[in-house]
Amino acid sequence: LMINAGLLVDVPHIAETGAAGIGLFRTELQFMIATAMPRISEQLSLYRAVLDAAGDKPVTFRTLDIGGDKVLPYMRQEEEENPALGWRAIRFCLQESAIFRAQLRAILRASAEGNVKLMYPMISGLEELTQSNELVEQCKAELRAAGVSFDENLEIGAMIEIPSAVMIADSLAKRVKFFSLGTNDLIQYTLAVDRLNEKIAYLYDPTHPAVLRLIKLTVEAAHRAGIWTGVCGEMASDPAMIPLLLGLGVDELSITPALVPPIKYIIRRLQLSECQELAAFALECESSAEILTRAQALVARAAPDWFGAGAK
């Protein structure tokens, strides 16, 4: 059970909540609040400070995820008709390779001083993952040649946020050490629902059978390859979704810090066998509403004093 973070002030929440570490550190926040592109030294300074504050707890740095609704005020970006499907995340990084390489070098250098993992956002195909991994290897070679220390065994993962990534998860799993399900975008792209559009917000549905089946396929592909799968999207911070995610075989949850104590409380009172039965039902069920009702009922029975004593 990990926390999501993006700034140095977030790190003390690890100790305050009893979390096991940071499952998602949003590195783009440093870029978004800056007045100019952060230099390698500035990035490295932040990463070192985060690791120092985290102690021996793991920190997973997500590489730069900008574009869409995340903009850099000092960098000109053309308006796009559909920014959610546009020049963002790993697509931006692979085209702006100098920016990407600088960040990779900073993360690699920081890895010598703490428990670091790295993951790429918005991987849609094998070519993007291969190119990203090749850039990491090039940066490692440069650091070795310069006599700069880094963790040779740094774990690298891929975020699964696009249905195409789920469908080739077996191939992706051979080339990474873990998956992290970004359920916000996975739901958006699976259901063709703009999650920022209030007119169709009712269609944004975490318990849609298609979404749950994609999560299950991802977990199965990961486990076949001997790697683990986490969830760092908002779905992991929803108490009603916890038994579903556990039953689907998810290995790690990374959530809003304030929700760590109540979700830990819920997890401790759930029976894994019940969660697995719920997941099996959900994978066969045609009704999203019925899946949600059953999930809520299970949590209510397990933790009535937190989730709502009046729930049935």
Summarize the structure.
The chain has 312 residues and is an alpha/beta fold. It is 48% helix and 12% strand.
Describe the structure.
The protein is of the alpha/beta class and 312 residues long. Helix content is 48%, strand content 12%. It contains 15 helices and 8 strands. The chain has helices at residues 13-17, 28-33, 40-54, 89-95, 97-110, 126-145, 163-167, 169-173, 183-191, 209-224, 242-247, 260-268, 272-284, 288-302, 304-307, and strands spanning 2-5, 22-26, 59-62, 116-120, 155-160, 178-181, 228-231, 252-255. It has an 8-stranded parallel beta barrel. The relative contact order is 0.11.
Q: Which helices and strands, and how do they pair?
A:
Layout: E1 2-5, H1 13-17, E2 22-26, H2 28-33, H3 40-54, E3 59-62, H4 89-95, H5 97-110, E4 116-120, H6 126-145, E5 155-160, H7 163-167, H8 169-173, E6 178-181, H9 183-191, H10 209-224, E7 228-231, H11 242-247, E8 252-255, H12 260-268, H13 272-284, H14 288-302, H15 304-307
Parallel strand pairs: 1-2, 1-8, 2-3, 3-4, 4-5, 5-6, 6-7, 7-8
